[in-house]
Amino acid sequence: MSLKNIRKTYNVPAFRGMRVRIYRQPGVITGSYGAYLRVVLDGEKRRRKYHPTDHVEYLGIPVKSETDPNPFLCERCGA
How far apart are CA 37 and CA 32, in angstroms? Predict the structure, then answer.
């Protein structure tokens, strides 16, 4: 399942590169694995899997523009 499908299915604002807090630990969404989010927690190298609705607080990052369909994509690499 892609992040787009996760957003639709679980009605969450999950985007690659978005800051999140999971069980009070900050991290960044790096992608998806099935119906789970792949997240790297701050200070760790390993990606972990979390369900999109299981104690996930979506913090977001500054929006590049009001009309940008995906403000969380990296301008340089598109990730």
Answer: 5
